[in-house]
């Protein structure tokens, strides 16, 4: 038996042929794709990690030299650690924490709605500005769920984007209309939570 007839050689040859077929399929798919089209990306669900995943995209975009804007809704009663972490990027990143805290803290629906609308005006400026390649609307889904913003105005704001601009919308309870409009939707599923399971409160570096 020669080396080329050995069982191992057969396995290697079968594997190589399978990978060649797979590569041909992938190459054909890639040839049919469109490049450089701005995406509507939604991170929703009850699980943690929605903002964290979006901030990873922010960091990646900054690394490519793109200008990025972050507009945080609901949050804003405290100085977010991520804002300090992004300070070295200077004018390449615009960061606005426009909220006044969680709804159970503010206890003023009219004020919460007014603050959300003010934050939305800030967001619209960046959505329409071709200078910014990525716009993160953090916790905007919460503002939609509480009807501080309307789905119609958010969808209209998404549509003013220049073609290359990506927009990421985070927060649990994303409305179906937004999910339908999105190009990429990820749902974070909650399995265990330290506060509910072990009464461990939010900690610096993990939750904020």
Largest sheet: spatial strand order: 3-2-4-5-1-6
Integer-rounded radius of gyration:
22 Å
CATH superfamily of the largest domain: P-loop containing nucleotide triphosphate hydrolases
Write the element-wise H/E pattern from the N-terminal end onward. Answer: HEHEHEHHEHHEHEH
Number of strands: 6
Structural class, please?
alpha/beta
CATH topology of the largest domain: Rossmann fold
What proportion strand? 15-25%
Report the CATH C-level class of the largest domain: Alpha Beta
Terminal CA distance reads: 65 Å
Helical percentage: 40-55%
- CATH architecture term of the largest domain: 3-Layer(aba) Sandwich
On the 0 to 100 scale, the average pLDDT is 87
Biggest sheet statistics: 6 strands, parallel
- Specify the number of helices: 9
Domains counted in the coordinates: how many? Answer: 2
Anisotropy-based shape: globular
Extract low-pLDDT stretches: none
What features would you highlight for this structure?
208 residues; alpha/beta; Rossmann fold; six-stranded parallel sheet; 9 helices; globular
Structure description:
There is one protein chain. The protein is of the alpha/beta class. The chain folds into two domains: 33 residues; 161 residues, P-loop containing nucleotide triphosphate hydrolases (Rossmann fold, 3-Layer(aba) Sandwich). Helices cover 45% and strands 15% of the residues. It has a six-stranded parallel sheet, with helices on both faces. The longest helix is centred in the N-terminal third of the chain and has 25 residues. The radius of gyration is 22 Å and the shape is globular.
